[in-house]
Design brief:
- Helices cover about 55% and strands about 15% of the residues.
- The chain has about 450 residues and is of the alpha+beta class.
- It folds into 3 domains: about 170 residues, no CATH class; about 100 residues; about 150 residues, 2-Layer Sandwich (Heat Shock Protein 90), CATH 3.30.565.
- The strands form 3 sheets. It has a 5-stranded mixed β-sheet with strand order 2-1-5-4-3. Strands 7-9-10-12-11 form a 5-stranded mixed β-sheet. Strands 6-8 form a two-stranded antiparallel ribbon.
- The protein is rod-shaped, with a radius of gyration of 49 Å.
- The chain starts with a helix and ends in a 7-residue tail after the last strand.
- The C terminus is likely disordered.
């Protein structure tokens, strides 16, 4: 793959190996130069012993030139006390351009001197000073740096070739190791991710993690867990889509049936019998709510809950209507409305009615499924402050299992007792639309929900 991870790793490996070789080369070339110069001085000290011991003028000129050639110098000088003695020299003592004292040469200066010699222009005559034999103060030689420079370039070329060989060999080993340990597993993970993207609903698309215990193995296991969660979410969403389509069809037909029932109820409202006159307003109200709910259900697949149309609502009366719709009153379980007669909330009455109808239905089902010994009861209360209204609904039923509390307001998370699992999700959406919150509060017995609404809400939060 062009520009892939493996190519980048190979380039970086070669680069860092070459960088390491350069860092090794810098002190190496300096030490090589010092070694070469020390060899010249060592040969000069030996020659100085011979030349200094011989009587002056008795050393043949040919032997003197041969000694200079062996030392690689043009002149050998010995300093003893205040006297400097020229022990040997070529035809004419050359002019020295630079003198290096190797007795106290620092490492940093030696590095700069080495590169100055290596990249110098043309042959130069240099002087070298080192320790003298016997009681002499120092020995000095005068030489050309031409041969030294050529030798240093040969050494550098050998180092370069060796560095290239080591770099290629090391880079190949590192590259193959990284390819096997990291790049190949990452390619496999990438391929499995792309396969999952093409068919996320297929169980075979979920990757099978390896037995590795390192970060790659951890990534594989976490990816598998994430793929399972995504697949589960897709199944739920597909189920929701199918359910929504079915509910829309049912709601469409139910709306037509309810429209007919509304016509009949309108005719019954004209009957003068007292019981009919007392019950028909609630019947008509229930039918109207059912028709409105069917219309909202038909629009559910196209949008979320419609924005609330808030107004001041007599809350005690609304709770009484909820209790009547649930068939409660003097029967079981007890429906205890503790809301003050004059208490109002600023909310959409239809949406608020639906929210408490869902909460009440859940409580009734729980109490009838597991009746408490002292009798079941559902209690609704309300308290207000300057900024909010807090409404509580409590029952003394079996309570909500701990395993579903974290996902209580998600679709299908809290289904039970023949419920669809959508009731609390709908309640949470309706309350959020008013800018409020619904929470499950700790309670020693049964279930306690608290709904907090702003003191005055003008729309969806």
């Amino acid at each position: 793959m062009q520009g892939g991870l493996s190519a980048k790793l190979l380039i970086l490996t070669i680069f860092f190996v070459l960088l390491a070789e350069i860092l090794i080369y810098i002190p190496s070339i300096s030490n090589y130069r010092l070694t070469q110069l020390q060899d010249h001085l060592s040969a000069a000290r030996t020659a100085a012993l011979v030349l200094d011991a011989a009587p002056e003028g008795l050393v043949p000129r040919a032997l003197e030139l041969q000694i200079l050639q062996q030392v690689g110098a043009r002149a050998i000088i010995l300093k003893r006390g205040n006297a400097r003695r020229l022990l040997a020299f070529s035809d004419m003592p050359p002019t020295v351009s630079t003198t290096f004292d190797l007795r106290d040469a620092s490492r940093i200066k030696s590095v700069f001197d080495a590169f100055a010699t290596l990249f110098g222009t043309g042959p130069q005559i240099i002087g070298l000073i080192g320790d003298a034999p016997r009681e002499g103060e120092f020995v000095e030689i005068v030489m050309s740096d031409e041969e030294l420079r050529a030798s240093m370039w040969r050494f550098s070329l050998n180092i370069l070739l060796l560095s290239l060989v080591i770099s290629i060999f090391t880079a190949a080993l590192v590259y193959l190791s990284l390819l096997a340990l990291f790049v190949k597993p990452m390619r496999e993970i990438s391929a499995k991710i792309m396969a999952f993207r093409e068919a996320p609903e297929e169980p075979s698309a979920i990757m099978a993690p390896s037995d590795r215990q390192d970060e790659i193995g951890l990534a594989e296991r976490e990816l598998r867990r994430m793929q399972r969660q995504i697949q589960t979410a897709l199944v739920q969403k597909t189920h929701l889509a199918a359910l929504g389509l079915a509910v829309s069809k049912i709601s469409h037909d139910l709306r037509n049936i309810l429209a007919s029932a509304q016509l009949f109820s309108d005719r019954l409202s004209s009957v003068s019998e007292p019981t009919v006159q007392r019950l028909m307003p609630r019947v008509i109200g229930s039918i109207n709510r059912a028709i409105a709910l069917c219309q909202s259900t038909l629009a559910y697949g196209r949008a979320a809950e419609p924005a609330p149309n808030p107004r001041h609502v007599r809350f005690k009366m609304l709770i009484d209507d909820v209790g009547a719709a649930l068939g409660l009153g003097e029967g079981y379980p007890a429906w205890i409305n503790e809301v003050d007669d004059k208490a109002t909330v600023f909310a959409d009455p239809e949406q608020l009615y639906r929210a408490f109808l869902n909460l009440g239905r859940n409580a009734v089902e729980a109490l009838r499924a597991q009746p408490p010994r002292n009798g079941g009861a559902i209690r609704i209360a309300m308290r207000a402050s300057e900024t909010s209204v807090i409404i509580s609904m409590a029952d003394n039923g079996p309570g909500i299992p701990a395993k579903v509390r974290d996902k209580l307001f998600q679709p299908f998370a809290a289904s039970g007792n023949k419920g669809s699992g959508l009731g609390l999700a709908i309640v949470a959406e309706l309350i959020r639309g008013h800018g409020g919150t619904i929470t499950l509060q700790p309670s020693p017995v049964g279930t306690l929900f608290e709904i907090e609404l702003p003191a005055q809400t003008t729309g969806r939060a």
